[in-house]
Specification:
By secondary structure, the protein is of the alpha+beta class. The chain has two helices and three strands. It is about 45% helix and about 20% strand.
Length: about 120
C-alpha cells in the first residue's frame, strides 16, 4: 500500500489485543461494584423493614419473614423487644456476602436499622 511502512501493518492488531483485556476488566469491575452496591441497598431496605415490623411488636418469626421478603439471602439479627418486650428501641441487622462477579472473592455487605418501639393501647 502506498504511504505505509511495512512494519506498521500489524500494529492495529497488536494494539487491539492489548486494549481488549483492559476494557473487559474495566467493564467487569464496574458491574461488580454495581452488584455490591445493589446488595447494600437491599440490606438497608431489609433492615429498615424488619425494624419497622419489630417496632410494631411483631413476633421474631414475622420480622425475619419480612426481612427475607426484601433480602432473600443472608443473616438477620434482632436485638431489643421484638415480640412484645418493653424496651425503648429495637435493632435489626441484616448482612450477606456477595461475589461481585458471581464467583470468587465474596464481599460482606450489611446494614443496621434502629426503630423506636411503638406503644400500643395495652398497659400504656
Amino acid at each position: 500500500m502506498p504511504g505505509r511502512r511495512p512494519r506498521d501493518e500489524g500494529a492495529v492488531v497488536v494494539e487491539f489485543a492489548v486494549a481488549l483485556p483492559v476494557v473487559v476488566l474495566l467493564v467487569a469491575l464496574v458491574l461488580g461494584v454495581a452488584r455490591v452496591g445493589g446488595a447494600q441497598v437491599r440490606c438497608i431496605d431489609a433492615a429498615a423493614a424488619g425494624a419497622r415490623a419489630a417496632a410494631r411488636g411483631e413476633a421474631p418469626s414475622v420480622v425475619r419473614a419480612t426481612v427475607a421478603a426484601v433480602a432473600p439471602t443472608g443473616r438477620t439479627r434482632i436485638t431489643g423487644p421484638a415480640g412484645g418486650g418493653r424496651g425503648r428501641t429495637v435493632v435489626v441487622e441484616v448482612g450477606e456476602r456477595v461475589a461481585p462477579l458471581g464467583w470468587g472473592v465474596q464481599v460482606p455487605v450489611s446494614a443496621r436499622a434502629v426503630a423506636a418501639v411503638e406503644l400500643t393501647g395495652e398497659g400504656s
